[in-house]
Amino acid sequence: MASLPKRIIKETERLASDPVPGISAEPHEDNLRYFAVTIEGPEESPYENGVFELELYLPDDYPMEAPKVRFLTRIYHPNIDRLGRICLDVLKNNWSPALQIRTVLLSIQALLASPNPNDPLANDVAEEWIKNEELAISKAKEWTKLYAGKR
Amino acid sequence: MADERERYFKDEFDSSQEKERHEFKLNGGSFLFGSNGQEPVEPAAPIVPSESGLHTSAGSDSQSQNDLQDETLQDESLQEEFEPASNELQSPDYISQIRQIIPGMNLDVARGLVEKYRGEGDVVSKAISEYFEEGLIVEHEKPRNSSSPTAGGNEGAESNSNGNSRNGSLVGQPLTREKRRKEVTPRPIKRLKSEIEWRKFIGSLQVNAMATRPTLRPLKYGTELEILKSSGGLPTSKLYNTNGRKKVSMASFVKIFDTQQNREIGRLPEDVAQIVYPLINTDDVVFEATMVFCENKRLSIGDSFVLQLDCFLTSSIFDEDQNKELTPSRSARWGSNSSMVETEEELQSRSKKVGLLSLFDRLRLRTVDDKADDASKSSANSEEDGVEVIDLDDDDNDGDEKLEDIVAREEDDARRFSSQEEGVMNLNQLKVFYKATQSSDSLKTLPETEPPSTTINLTLRKYQRQGLTWMLRREHEFEKAADSQGFQNVNGNMMNPLWKCFKWPKDMSWTAQRMEDHTEVDLGKFFYANLHTGEFCLEKPILKTMMKGGVLSDEMGLGKTISALSLIFTSPYDSSLVDKHLFMDGNEDENLSPPSSQSSKKPYAMKTTLVIVPTSLLSQWHSEFTKFNNSPDLYCEIYYGGNVSSLKTLLTKTKNPPTVVLTTYGIVQNEWTRILKMDRRDADMDSTTGLFSLKFYRVILDEGHVIRNRTTSTSKAVMEISSMCRWVLTGTPIINRLDDLYSIVKFLKLEPWAQISYWKMFVSDPFERKDYRQAFDVVNAILEPVFLRRTKQMQDADGRPLVELPPKEVVVEKLTFNEAQNTIYKHYLEEAETSVKKGLARGDLLKKYSTILVHILRLRQICCDPKLLGAQDENDEDLSKSNQLLKESVDVNKVYQKVGLNESSNRLDSGRLNTIKSRIQEKYPTADSLKTLECSICTADPIELHKVLFTECCHSFCEECLKEYLEFQKQKELELKCPNCREPVNKNYFFTLMLKDGESPQVVPLREVAKSAKIEALLKHCSILQETSPGEQIVVFSQFSSFLDILETELANTFLGNGVKVYKFDGRLNLKERAAVLENFSTKDFDNQKVLLMSLKTGGVGLNLTCASYAFMMDPWWSPSMEDQAIDRIHRIGQINQVKVTRFIVENSIEEKMLKIQERKRTIGEAMDADEDERRKRRIDEIQMLFE
Fold first, then answer.
1. Taking CB atoms and an 8 Å cutoff, what residues of chain B touch A99?
2. What region holds the UBC core domain (chain A) (predicted)?
3. From B111's CA, which of B11, B60, B684, B734 has a CA 20 to 30 Å away?
4. Domains of chain A with bracketed CATH
5. pLDDT one-digit tens code per residue, B18-56
6. Residues 917-946 of B with CB under 8 A from A
């Protein structure tokens, strides 16, 4: 594998030296393009107090191409499916090389704070969310406790 | 007499015009024939050259010097009689011709004049005019003593009353047998003076001749006739085409004379005349003709009669000096123009050889094969001692098939001369050749020699140690072998294979058969002849090559330099002599002259090796020598010509002369030219103190193929270096032609092959006949003992490849023109196409050749960068510098205007451009504010100013980053948007900064300062490598040195002060600078990316750049091997990394077509270029290919 572009090194350094509150991202020892990420559930969201593990991978074409991110911790969220895949525009068509790992993770955190059931990825969750938002939120809280409890 | 004279004139129908003119002048009395200066003092026997015998007065002191030109036309048959008795080594023809015109001219003066004009045409007349114009003071030699046995003098005085004797022999002799017999023996002595001691019969021909003059009476049976030549002094080159085929009918130049009447009576049939013509005046062969049959009636013109032609070889042909004189090597040096065209002398000597060959054939003189398995044959031969007179009309072939076989070979040889097909050498043949010459056995059988660690600080590889053994053997073993007499005559098998053994036939000549007391000269049973050089010998010629040295032709990258150095360090001086020197105990210098070999009047630099290298390698050699040198006593001196006041003194008079003197081909050539220009009289080597004043212990040519064209002055100069041992290092001994090898052979003085006639006969001619097998076989035979070639693929005794190099990856990267480039390219392409089409239509494409080459050059330049247009790059040797089109300077801006580039940009909304521009300026009003720009893509902070690119929305990026992104988006067919604000972007409204020294940056539209596609690509690669492989050196090759300049600026603007160091290596650097560049470049520096910009021509060969593992070829060259050579600078021994080569090719441009041509060359072999014409035609094909 070709060695790491400067930008990735720079980003990694900055993530370590100037971390975003509630978010951590550490590159894997063997592969500096693979990051172990944790995101704390935003306050006043159903995911409050949860710590969600994600994996983030920077493809060879990064930053021309968006990083690939996936939840490893189970989460009840209309835009995140059973497999942890995330429906977020900046990870898809709205990616811009001006964005960074940090901004992507912030976007994900923001997504937790404001689920968007109208643009769902997990259809069943989105349906429930629309049908009965309260129930859905409580279920989300339950899942957070169940799966994303602080250790 | 008068009657006869009249008739003579009437009958003079086949006399050449010159002769007639000549005679009329003579008649007019305006001119006294001066050529026979020796004779006229003998009033009784005024010898005049014309048959008419009109001249009655002659005197050496009243010679008119008018019309000297005509003199040169005079009958050559006279010359031999006036040849100086001493055996002139230097072109006897010219000297004697001159001395014929100016009788009694001092021999030395004549020689000097000939020397001076040799190599130019018309030597004689030039020499003569100089003689007169310069008023050279000449001591006229005393007229030859009349008692000297010159031709005709005695005889004529005795008995020739009418003075008509043309050649003075036997005139007016009574026809009695007794008298004749007496005549027969003295004849050669008389004709040929002291040179000829004897002659010996080799056979008779019965010839049907045709009468050209009527006779009054029938010619009697047994009338003695004479065969004479009357070409009127035409140079041989007029008689033969360059391919050896004769141009004119020889029969008109070979006359039969009635010696009694002293008049022409007829001529030989063409086939015999052809054979006889070149031999007539050569001393080597004597013909005696006797009338045998003329139907006993008087002859009328056209009648045929039969004569017997007895042929004798004379002692002179066996004379070694004579043989040497025949060797053309001396004159070849002066040969002019194209490589294998023979000089006049070469041609003469060759035509003579052909004559001999055919004569032998005609006489059925057979070779005696002395190989054991042919014993029967030789016994068969010995049975027919009595060679019968051969009747040429008898087509019956004796039914002796064996003999036919032998003869067939000779015929074959003769046929070569009619072959007009040009041979070519293609790549496959080259492969065959190389394969055959590979010395794979050497790897198994050669022992290894470890160079002494006291002198050399280097561990050799196994094959290099073997090579060292071989080289040492080549230098030393011959001495031993010679001492032990190992060469002497072990048995018959040692005979030089080029020589043939002949048995003397029984003397069946007319005279011998009719003379009672005829005694044959006893010369043993056999004689030996080399029919290819025309050399003859009575003793068995033993094959010996005592030449010391050879060709080390290991493939590129196997360390030829190292091998040569190890040889030098192992054997730094001529040990035999230096040891003696020690015995002599300090008895200095003077007595130390080496055993006198033929050329060793020069002092012997026995402790010094001269190494001649291309200029670019000078410093490399020097540093490698220093690196490996382990002995304080050995050192290396670079010789520039001027830096050593007297090389002679330095090398022979000092206690510790340099072990190695390094110099370049250029210096050798310069010095040689200077010597040539010096006044002849001062030109003896004693007065010079440079390279040519010495005999070196050893001379080594690095990249020895430099001398492949033996007619270049460099070649000639190098050949003249004298040395005990001679070495050639070259990975590519053949560049284009098989004949390239000849120069090497000649340099090595590898006798007998160094004689052009040998080479031509055995190599060039068979090759041209497409008899490749023979040509290669011979070349192999020639080179086998002196040639060592190993390839990278060869395996050593253990089955391992000699060299395991890391893999090499060559990638062609296709680029697209930027818009400006594209527009300009199209414009020029159109121009070029029109020109080619016109040329094709009118059929004068060849005439327009150089114009078209300029067109092509332009297109290639645009592919690199339109800024190259009009730049003076002298790389394309095919372009004459005088070419108007090339001189015409090209103003790029005007071109832009012409092709409407500016207009099209005007079509852009200039208002919008201005708005954007002012918006950007507003946003970043000061130069300082521009220094805070960030690129959100690569997170560069700040963006270097030269990289800055602004979008319409005033966002800044690195130009590269944004373009990469847009390219990415394009591929995905996504809308092009600004990464920062997602506003749509338009390339036409990109802005950048224009930087000028001392001014604040200007915001300008990007397209006006766009970089060419190749520069972009290179910059991109550099910055990628900077990140991915920091500290890796990069070599960038281009054939355009002006492109290197542009790249230098671009790289500097882009990276300078930011981890990149740029070096440039091209022909403009002097030696010191070159060395410095290479040294600085090669030291590793992990903080800096070192980029070496290398001119393909200057740095393509020899250099060692293994410190780098990345190379970029900016532009394709016509011949792929040139690029391969360049790549091998990096991919060679010492390289430890995988080598990555990127070749930039612009898509849909002339470069892609050049790639195709390269492909073609690779497959059909570029070595095919037979000659200049052929090459041109091929180029035309290529041009058409380019514009298809």
1. 979
2. 3-149
3. B60
4. 6-148 (3.10.110.10)
5. 443 443 333 333 333 333 433 333 344 344 444 443 343
6. 936-939
